[in-house]
Amino acid sequence: MPIFTLFTLIDGRPFLQVSTQENSTDSLHQLQSLPGAYFQQEAGWLLPYQPQLYETLASIFPGDEIVLLPQKMAESPLDEHREVTNAPGENSIDETAMLQLTEQLMIREYSHRTIKSYRSHFRAFLSHMVGRSIESLAKEDFRQYLSHQARNMNWSESTINQAINTLKCYYEFVLGQERNFSSLRPQVPQYLPEILSEEEVERFLHSIDNIKHKAVLSLIYAAGLRLSESVNIRLADLYPEQGLIRIKASKGRQERYVSAPLATFALLQQYLNQFKPKHWLFEGLYDERYSPRTVQSVFRQAILLSQSNPYSTVQTLRHSYAFHLLKQGLGLAQVQILLGHATIKSTERYRYLYKESDPVVKMPFNSFLADSEPGIRYVA
What does the pLDDT look like over 281-290, one tens digit per residue? Predict the structure, then answer.
């Protein structure tokens, strides 16, 4: 089955449009995992061109013929689809601006999830500004828009900041206008992360009978992984002899290697022997990549069974990993590397949970109560 590719230019940068009748879930997931890959209903898969890209496509579609169509010298591969008809009763928005923003985000290799989120924010912005020239809006216009959304859509501080990031991308990347949105940004509350004690983690993991469920959740804790990282690990990313796992689909597209205990690799080997996944380390019923929602559901069941902290999420395992490392004496900078944080500022919040230099304070109330209730032992 031929795989047709069209060499095209987006703002002077080469891209490949990939069109295929291939419906293999495994192949589609491999396309999605390529850096900068993005899917458009009208154009198919758009991949930033690299010299080794054809070899990569050949490995994704083994045995298929890769057909290169003539180069299309265009401002955008989506030009012919810019005329979009809005639904009845829907205000007409500037679809050209939508596509321009999408292209710029693709060129800068933003993740598929980020592009989807920014497009949603930008569509809401364009709908609100219908009939106005968005190129000449003043800061007060943005302030009124954000205030309106926060009031009527119940936006949180983090959602407002994400909307501001979207606007900043459009005005700087597409229009080339330097805009300062710092005065519009709300201060995001800094909450201390929920954690589980080592005893709770042990009880939590022992409550899981299914070996696949136990393997994925054990790995998240043992290597301090994000949920998205755990479901994007391929079999080729495992290095059991070195005790390492390569994390490719990391936040900010920063690859790193993480170490995992021998016991974790032993558990993974038991799982592999039983389930025999083909491409991804954790796969669903039809060999597709394991769903994050499935992991969340399994986690919630285990929390209930083990009667652990009910406010926990899958991310709590990662927080607990960091806290337990600090408790064992590992330095903050080392924990930052293991967690894959871009800056140590993200790691510093764990200081508030545990400080090596903090003196042990015995609360006097405990001793008073212990004296009056000799059968009860209180630990400060």
Answer: 999 877 788 8
In SS3 terms, 33-73 reads as: HCCCCEEECCCEEEEECCCCHHHHHHHHCCCCCEEEEEEEC
Q: Between these two residues, 287 and 363, which has the higher pLDDT value?
A: 287
Nearest Cα neighbor of 248 from 271, 269, 225, 265 is: 225
> Please, is 320 exposed, middle or buried when counting C-beta atoms within 10 Å of its C-beta (0-12, 13-18, 19+)?
buried
Report helix, strand or coil for 312: coil
**Band (329; pLDDT cuts 50, 70, 90):** confident
CA distance 127 to 226: 34
Contact 41, 104 (CB under 8 A): no
**Phi and psi torsions of 69, nearest 5°:** -85, 160
Instruction: List the strands of the sheet with 3-10, edge to edge.
Output: 38-40, 44-48, 13-19, 3-10, 66-72
Of the listed ranges 54-63, 332-341, 342-351, the one predicted with least confidence: 54-63
Mean pLDDT, the chain, as a whole number? 80
Element (H, E) at 7: strand 3-10
DSSP for residue 127: H
Pairwise pLDDT comparison (189 vs 273), residue with the higher score: 273
Tokens of 170: 């459009």
C-alpha 106 chain-centroid distance: 16
Looking at 151-273, which runs of residues are DSSP E strands?
238-239, 244-247, 256-259
Task: Kindly list the distances between the CA atom of residue 144 and the CA atoms of 10, 92, 186, in Å, as whole numbers in the listed order.
Answer: 34, 21, 14
The DSSP output letter for 170 is: I
Note the pLDDT of residue 72.
44
Q: Which two tokens stand for residue 13?
A: 């940068």
Across the beta sheet with 238-239, what order do the strands follow? 238-239, 244-247, 256-259
| Residue 137, phi-psi category: left (phi > 0), alpha (psi -120 to 50), beta (remainder) | beta
- Burial state string for 58-93 with b = 16 or more CB within 10 A and e = fewer than 16: eebbeeeebeeeeeeeeebbbeeeeeeeeeeeeeeb
